[in-house]
Amino acid sequence: MDFNLSEEHLLIGEAAQNFAENYLLPGVIDRDEVQKFDKELLRQMGELGFMGMMVAPDYGGGGMDTLSYVIAMEEISKIDASAGVIMSVNNSLVCWGLENFGTTEQKEKYLTKLASGQVIGAFCLSEPEAGSDATSQHTTAIDKGDHYLLNGTKNWITNGDTAEICLVMAQTHPEKQHKGINVFIVEKGLAGFVVGKKENKMGIRASDTNTLMFTDVRVPKENRIGDDGFGFKFAMSTLNGGRIGIAAQALGIAAGAFELSLKYSKERRTFGKPISEHQAIQFKLSEMATKVEAARLLVYKAARLKDEGKDYIQASAMAKLYASETAMWVTTEAVQVHGGYGYVKEYHVERLMRDAKITQIYEGTSEIQKLVIARELLK
Ligand code: CAA
Ligand code: FAD
């Protein structure tokens, strides 16, 4: 597979890197501390085209390929993984899902605003009793003729507080199991839609993660995406691409931690020489660089397969599994390379280590990725 990057790919990477270094880096430690993302930064990300990169220009997007998107995701997540997840959910779950499965009316009404970053979206599949076991949806959507009546609770929802548009999965025909699940576009502000508890998290602390509650929320019938019972297929198909986005986020976290370690190892001196001259540190750097490169190749491969219209279920699961395990391993080693300085906030690697952990959990845990890969292998 040929990864020769075009001039456009390189320019996108440069633009994302400049934005991350000049605008995201200055407040990243504070945002982690206060658990809040900056509205002005979100606005800038929208204006620069980072919120709907793959969406067609007709709907306010950048019309770019998946490879461009993962290149930008890596650069943004190197510096601020919270910005990375906000961007990833909006691009690869909400915008992609709407663009590929929504009606023209739904796209005109919602996608244009989402792709240009005027509003942010959320993807609401998980529930207190349905995480990995996503088919066991307890949220219900009862067909009432011209509308559905939505009742239930979603938890762990990224952008749960800031999002104005939510894609919500709910069970309409329990007897049909996963084939009875629907997906709806649900606007904030509808009567009975309440934003609940905000989670106090280990990592990606600047991104908001909330519980969302629905009590007799009337969702117009035209807000259902796809045919009756399409909701679970929608979720799985969307997550196949979403996992490439999270893999790119994990890659960014790992690459960021590696670059900081390489730089620090040349500056810090012990026993009369830079620590980069101790073989034990050199071996760590070599292994970090190798794993980061391998993760990048898997992420690029999954993105390329998607862009070429080929099957990418296995490739996206492999990329997500490997990149997230790499992020955890590399960031842990990065703290070790920094010694005591790695354990405090100023040097960034402790945050990257905390941020890395979630990439092994959301959009399907590492165990679920192995399950997906095995099912593809054994088909
Ligand atoms: N792509 C397309 N279709 C898929 C699919 C995939 N990757 N995985 C399953 N399906 C389809 C199956 O083909 C099947 O369809 P049919 O009935 O038409 O044949 C249907 O879905 C049910 O599949 P299974 O019988 O395999 O269902 P299962 O219950 O045994 O397992 C699972 C499914 C793979 C474990 C799935 O539940 C899963 O992916 N769980 C993880 C959930 C997840 O990733 N959640 C992420 C929430 S969003 C998020 O996390 C965002 C964020 O943090 C930022
Ligand atoms: P469980 O499913 O209870 O799993 C517990 C453990 O058991 C895990 O180690 C798991 O791998 C393992 N396990 C479970 N089943 C199996 C099996 N069959 N074989 C082997 N091992 C198994 N969800 C959304 O819908 N939208 C979001 O925006 C979103 N954002 C999130 C943000 C954060 C910060 C967090 C923490 C979560 C978010 N999630 C979101 C939810 C996330 O996708 C789930 O947490 C994840 O899918 C795991 O589900 P669970 O937490 O219920 O764990």
How would you characterize the overall build of this protein?
The chain has 379 residues and is an alpha+beta fold. The chain is built from 11 helices and 9 strands. The strands form 3 sheets. A 4-stranded antiparallel sheet has the order 2-3-7-6, covered by helices on one side. Strand 8 and strand 9 (273-274) form a beta hairpin. Helix 4 packs antiparallel against helix 5. The radius of gyration is 21 Å and the shape is globular. The model has no long low-confidence stretch (mean pLDDT 98). Acetoacetyl-coenzyme A is lined by residues 85, 89, 123, 125-126, 132, 134-135, 158, 178, 232, 236-237, 239-240, 313, 362-364, 368, 371-372.
SSE blueprint:
Elements: H1 7-24, H2 28-34, H3 39-47, H4 66-79, H5 81-101, H6 104-115, E1 121-124, E2 140-143, E3 147-158, E4 165-171, E5 181-187, E6 193-198, E7 209-220, H7 231-267, E8 269-270, E9 273-274, H8 279-307, H9 313-338, H10 349-359, H11 366-377
Parallel strand pairs: 1-4
Antiparallel strand pairs: 2-3, 3-7, 4-5, 6-7, 8-9
Helix pairs in contact: 1-4, 4-5, 4-7, 5-6, 5-7, 7-8, 7-9, 7-10, 8-9, 9-10, 9-11
The protein binds acetoacetyl-coenzyme A and flavin-adenine dinucleotide.
Domain Acyl-CoA dehydrogenase/oxidase C-terminal: 231-378
Domain Acyl-CoA oxidase/dehydrogenase middle: 122-217
GO molecular function, one term: flavin adenine dinucleotide binding
